[in-house]
Amino acid sequence: MSAAEDVATDHAAVAAVPKKALALGPAASLVILLLLIATPLFVKNFIIFQMTMWLIYAIAVLALNILTGGSGQFSLGQSAFYALGAYTSAILMEHFNVNYVLTLPVSGAVCFLAGYLFGKPALRLSGIYLALATFALATAMPQLLKLGVFEHWTGGVQGLVVTKPDAPFALPMSQDMWLYYFTLAISIGIYLASVNLLRSRSGRAMMAIRDNEIAASAMGVDVALYKTLAFGVSAGITGVAGGLGAIAVQFVAPDGYTITLAIALFLGMVVGGVGWLPGSLAGSAFIVFVPNIAEGISKGLSGAVFGIILIVIIFVVPHGARQVAYGAQHLIGKLRRN
Amino acid sequence: MLSGRQLRLAALSAAALAYAATTSGALAQKKYDTGASDTEIRIGNIMPYSGPASAYGVIGKTEEAYFKMVNDAGGINGRKITFISYDDGYSPPKAVEQVRKLVESDEVLAVFNPLGTPSNTAIQKYLNGKKVPQLFVATGATKWNDPKNFPWTIGWQPSYQSEGQIYAKWLMKEKPNARIAVLYQNDDFGKDYLKGLKDGLGARAATMVIAEESYEVSEPTVDSHIVKLKSLDPDVVLSVTTPKFAAQTIKKIAELSWQPLQIVVNVSLSIGSVMKPAGFEASQGVLTAAYAKDGADPRWDDDPGMKKWTAFLDKYMPGADRTNSNLVYGYGAAQTLVKVLEMCGDDLTRANVMKQAASLKDFVPDTMLPGVKLNTSESDFAPISQLQMQRFKGEKWEPFGEIISGEVNTN
């Protein structure tokens, strides 16, 4: 047995998450939703912008969660799809004057295709080998974006400046607030679709592959198809997040989408809890806000402080936000019984 | 009859009224925007303290220490500088987030010396939209000198194009029949230099520049490009390269026993990361242009400006490595800001800060080479546009010749 098979079959790459535990209960979901809707009414534009970025990264983390938590494949290349989505939106908006709303489905479709095509050869790899192949993709992307051939479209190293959209129908809200609610609506849509996907027949097939590839194929699951599909869907959703990111930041440049972003997304997924979709919000909050906290503690040692926080979290709650949420649920249950 | 307590209250309110009356009289002349008050001026900054460009973080730390020195000496017209510097990790999205935090949450008067071309491009539109000064950006791209389209953005160091022009001017004078080969990095940095050189040569560019060879940053070595250039037999090589490739170029040219006149650009004048790895022997006679003094050069030991710089380092940044050119850079930039704020007087509005930043007349920070002066005007947003040629001799740079100006017209 080769080392690759060893990794793929002997150990489940990801702890199996029961299907019914994919999402939050209705009460908790409602509370979070209300908070997400109400908070922007009371805070400054800057905080709203940060919350928008939080949601956008949450979408990207969710996409990775579908891939890793759902189908058990690793990817360190999400930044490449994020960049592809961002550039697709930016180029459509700036060079073709396409409405920003319409650029997002295009970004999603382009990235779905790219992810699907990348998933084809990647099928031969699994576990850490796949992670390395996607790592190569993430490293290559910023350089590809700088290539002279595309410079007319991508703006080369200079990047592209994107115009921020105003609120439509003369709604009395700032650009930031409008963009937040726009992002929120898309996030909710993607979240619901993802939960449904993983609960569907296809989702069951993906999870079967995650738990045991050989058993899944023995049961008649088309392993190749579902693995590439998972890659495509994940890349597509990441692309939408990238497009939203470009609109919110108003700028795309190769240096914004380095391997650091891919690792941050991976980190977000682990901290949020692998395979637990609501954890994407917590994971994204971690990658958006914790570096700022670390910087507040020590500017010179912000990286070290960040590392310590991360180690403590992994040590105390190895399953991330999922573990915290379950712990809280048990506690509430106990209190009710008493 | 008033009780003691009422009396005290009455006296107090009378005093308060009197105080308000006098200060409001004074306030009539003082003008403030967000971020400035009678006691404080809040200045924001972003720097890559982490990430691939974190070596530049020293600039932010130097500036912070410099403002501390200014505050210890009483501040600027009695106002203390509060310097808020955040880490953007050289990532444009993070730069936007941090700058918005500075403007909307920390409410700074101006954003000063943000570093990096991508980060500055990302925040330029936002800051100009909000009419917040983007002062003395720490990048050499030429596009910052564009007062018509971006009246709230102003550069500081010489632009790559003006440096390219300076080499052109020098070559036309010293070697009018030069056959120039240019090796350049295939990005905005390299192309800016090339444009500057050609603009400077004017009509003679077509005959003098005999080869333009570009390389990608991703290439492991530029050796093959050097061999190709040698086959064309130029007598001047202009190496528009970043430090790693600059060292390779000098080394390869020496290996080929080829002896053209070599010019490396200011970006790669570091002795520690270019000349030493290339080999001091191979580096003899290489030329470059500089605008600031070298902190490690004993020539400046008795220079009043550099004495102040040394005293500052000893007191506020003990243990700093004096060969690090970022310490010189940060000091000069911070001193320029302090000068502008002094010129603002009691009119600390954002508009006036921009107006004063665009009215520098022959200002000379302590760290500039003798003769280099900072000048700006309503149509010139490039403070430093003078450099002096230097030749590498022994183990250090030796300035020679006159100060040369390269004026870039962006319009």
- How do the helices and strands follow one another from N- to C-terminus of chain A? HHHHHHHEHHHHEHHHH
Structural shape of chain B: globular
Q: Under the CATH scheme, which architecture of the largest domain in chain B would be assigned? A: 3-Layer(aba) Sandwich
Biggest protein-protein contact in the assembly = A-B, 33 and 34 residues
Class computed from helices, strands and strand pairing of chain A? mainly alpha
Main CATH class of the largest domain in chain B: Alpha Beta
Biggest sheet, spatial arrangement of strands of chain A: 1-2
Q: Any idea of the CATH topology of the largest domain in chain B?
A: Rossmann fold
Query: Main beta sheet of chain A, described?
Result: 2 strands, antiparallel
The helix count of chain A comes to 15
Main attributes?
heterodimer; A: 338 residues; mainly alpha; two-stranded antiparallel sheet; 15 helices; 1% strand; globular; B: 411 residues; alpha/beta; Rossmann fold; 2 domains; 4-stranded parallel sheet; 14 helices; 13 strands; 17% strand
If you had to describe this structure to a student in words, what would you say it looks like?
- The complex is a heterodimer of chains A (338) and B (411).
- Chain A is mainly α and 338 residues long.
- In chain A, 73% of the residues lie in helices and 1% in strands.
- Chain A is built from 15 helices and two strands.
- The longest helix of chain A has 27 residues.
- The radius of gyration of chain A is 20 Å and the shape is globular.
- By secondary structure, chain B is α/β, with parallel strands linked by helices.
- Helices cover 43% and strands 17% of the residues of chain B.
- Chain B is globular.
- Chains A and B meet through helix 3 and strand 2 of A and strand 3, helix 3 and helix 4 of B.
